[in-house]
Amino acid sequence: MAFSLSFWEWVLASLVVIIGALVQGSIGFGVALLGAPLLFLINPMLVPAPVIIIGMSLPLLILLRDHHAVVYRDVAWVLPGKLLGSLMAAALLGVVSESALGLVFGALVLLGVGLSLSRRFPLPGGRHLFAAGGVAGFMATTTSIGGPPLALVFQHVRGARLRGTLSACFIPGGIFSLAALWWVGRLGWSELMAGLSLFPAIISGFLLSAYLAHWLDRGWLRPALLAVSALAGLTAVVNAAWQLLS
């Protein structure tokens, strides 16, 4: 079976993943929010399944490191919502055209940025966690970006508890999303091989985060991350709209 990426596409994708993993290993999220829109511009087949595949490995490593800080009561509320959201996304992906998919992708990237900018949300409770899980599951399955809704609901949580609890939500949530993508024919050998080829990059970024986390976990990183993601999402919207109108 042929590898779907050119050498330079793989190099650029690996660089993006290393930076995204470095950010996520430092602040708890970022590999999908930063990586997905940029990877989509490199090669659309990299999103969502390959990003979800590599995105599950990093939360696993973070969970091994910060498992002592996980609040499993919160995870138990989030996961049913994630499952429901993934099923709803699968229903959408089963009917949306390839030309319209880029428009949906870009719009949801911008929604993810908007959610990440929000500051108005109460302390996490059961129904809030379930709703955030539903939105996260839908966005993760369609775009691989499931972090912003959960980051919003956990915005009052910091440090190891944030990283560990989010990671405990991301791992089974990724399984839900991949199962939904396989069901609608958007996860095959090409996507699987592309995801596996980026594992060295995700591991490298995570290892670097152990040394740079304290330096990166500062006020400038969040707005920079959101600005790059918004620009890439807007570019995806413009490109998709141009293709639909031409």
Furnish the topology, listing elements before pairings.
Elements: H1 7-27, H2 31-42, H3 49-66, H4 72-93, H5 98-117, H6 126-143, H7 147-153, H8 159-183, H9 189-197, H10 199-216, H11 221-245
Helix pairs in contact: 1-2, 1-10, 2-11, 3-8, 3-9, 3-10, 4-6, 4-8, 5-7, 5-11, 6-7, 6-8
Explain briefly what this protein structure is.
With 246 residues, the protein is mostly helical.
List keywords for this structure.
246 residues, transport, cell membrane, transmembrane helix, Probable membrane transporter protein
Kindly report how far apart the N and C termini lie: 33 Å
**Estimated helix fraction:** over 70%
The assigned structural class equals mainly alpha
Radius of gyration, in angstroms, nearest whole number: 17 Å
Low-confidence stretches: none
Strand content: under 5%
Q: Oligomerization state of this entry?
A: single chain
Put simply, the count of helices is 11
- Sketch the topology as an H/E string, one letter per element: HHHHHHHHHHH
Structure description:
By secondary structure, the protein is mostly helical. Helix content is 79%, strand content 0%. It is built from eleven helices and no strands. The radius of gyration is 17 Å and the shape is globular. It is found in: Cell membrane. It is a multi-pass membrane protein. InterPro entries: TM_pro_TauE-like (IPR002781), TSUP (IPR052017).
